[in-house]
Amino acid sequence: MKTKPRSASTVVMKPKLKVILTDWAFMASIAGAFVVGLGLFFPYFYLQLYAVSRGIDGNLVFYVLAIMNAGSAGGRILPNFVADRVGPYNMMIPCLAISSALMFSIFAVKSCAAVVVFAVLYGFWSGSYVSLIPTLIVQSASHCGEHGTRMGVAFSIVSIAMLVGTPISGALLHRVDGQYAWYRPIIFCGAMLACGAIIFSVSRYLFIKARRGGARGQLV
Fold this sequence. Notes:
Layout: H1 17-21, H2 24-39, H3 42-53, H4 58-61, H5 64-75, H6 78-86, H7 88-105, H8 112-139, H9 147-172, E1 175-176, E2 179-180, H10 183-209
Antiparallel strand pairs: 1-2
Helix pairs in contact: 2-9, 2-10, 5-8, 6-7, 7-8, 7-10, 9-10
């Protein structure tokens, strides 16, 4: 039995690793994601301990992580609808800037209400980054055959930052004169998020310069 040849539209192009690794907009986005990964999850691991050290009611502290994850659930859904209209870069960069500002605002968290507000807001904006980064990686592909390879390359590198980021924060937190040195990991993580926003801005510039925004122009 003879089989019909596949049409040109159904042929899947193979990814070329050299082309992917010399895509500077893509590599810049990986660098940005790596830096963000070093600091993004500090509150998820240490906000409860921070609240306890500030004398906040233990009954509330027990639910802080759940509250933050509830905010993250909204952040993983709602900003994506906005990104469809303004572009993933234009949505994600402000999300990182806001997350960085919130990280530094931890210094002002000294009451139950402040803990809840911070947990909801940080969960929302950090969750939006987590959901938008795969979209950004897919957008960088020149054809659909590159999607899997680009995702694999990106997350293989970024996973290293995700692995070591929280232990670095813990090392910075070690006690000084019997007290936790909270300012060290907070400043470090806030700076990492701010640097990530800057690097993604560079990636956006390189992406537009390469004229890969498609028919929608600046919608990236």
